[in-house]
Amino acid sequence: MTTQKPARRVIISSFLAASAVLLGLPLQANAAETVLLNASYDVARELFKDINPLFVAEWKKTTGETLSINQSHGGSSKQARSVADGMEAAVVTMNQANDIDMLADKGLVVQDWAKKFPNNAAPYYSTMIYLVRKGNPKQIKDWADLAKPGVKVVIPNPKTAGNGRYTYLAAWGSVLKKGGTEAQARELVTKIFKNVPVLDAGGRGATTTFTQREIGDVLVTFENEVNLVRAEFGNNFEVVYPSISILAESPVAVVDKVVDRRGVRKQATGYLNFLYSEQAQEVIAKHYFRPRSEAAFKKYNANFRQITLFTVDDVFGGWRSAQKKHFDDGGEFDKIYQTK
């Protein structure tokens, strides 16, 4: 896995390398090769870099067809908008259902996309935890600590990154799940975002801000990203788990309009089904994403600390409700950030 690469190479190179927005990609790269584009979120770069060759080999073995998988990465919501604007992605692998719902509303994805694959079409999940500097000088242990005066918190923009949106909802929901009120939740989240020095567009950008630009006392990000940083940067950072956090599912979908036009539905569906295979689930677990496979989870159990998780459905009534209340223009986040 990526932890064997030289220190700093993966995060720096993946952030600086432009994510190709592949428009008008030809169906055939050559006479014998079929090309699929996977539009995904930015902190899944290394995961799909390892999964794609496995699927290509398996597909060749079972069908005799030569495939090539291209990747495009960025903030989850930004990627979804690119697909809506014409990026020729055969599949989307996002970090929140809300982004795929938007594509469904535009007629690019079927409305019941979440029923097309197991586990609400989410082959793995994660949660939001903290990365702090060595020694944890600000003694950050839970969500309330992010709101303390003098603490600089690095979070990507909830308007463009699912990473930032999950962090916002995790902080808000932590108050409600402990018996607090909506007003108290709003107060906590307002104080946290007053402590955010810069809003990067995506999660990988936020990681670079924290690790390379050395801005901030704490980075809030996906569990897998935290462990990737620790593996590459050695003992410069420490991992902190809050007392409670949010279950962050990573849903997938076939982009129906694209695959039907290009005649690659079979290949695209096979690719997403492969993510549920034991072979892919092991890779997922190695990358510190939480797999759906019980066998893979058990085998890599040491990668995952026990933590109380709540869902978007449980606390916010689902992604559509959360989006409307908190992240649509003029919603709670806009009101909170405008008062910064």
Explain how this protein is built.
The protein is α/β, with parallel strands linked by helices and 340 residues long. It has two domains: 34-122 and 251-275, 3-Layer(aba) Sandwich (D-Maltodextrin-Binding Protein, domain 2), CATH 3.40.190.10; 126-247 and 307-338, D-Maltodextrin-Binding Protein, domain 2 (3-Layer(aba) Sandwich), CATH 3.40.190.10. It contains 16 helices and twelve strands. It has helices spanning 9-16, 45-63, 76-84, 97-105, 118-121, 162-177, 182-194, 203-211, 223-233, 256-262, 265-274, 278-286, 294-299, 312-316, 319-327, 332-338, and strands at residues 28-30, 33-41, 66-74, 91-93, 124-133, 153-154, 218-222, 237-240, 244-249, 252-254, 290-291, 308-310. Strands 5, 6, 7, 8, 9, 11 and 12 form a seven-stranded mixed beta sheet that branches. Strands 1, 2, 3, 4 and 10 form a five-stranded mixed beta sheet that branches. Strand 1 (28-30) and strand 2 form a beta hairpin. Helix 2 runs antiparallel to helix 12 (278-286), helix 3 (76-84) packs parallel to helix 4 and helix 6 (162-177) packs across helix 7 (182-194).
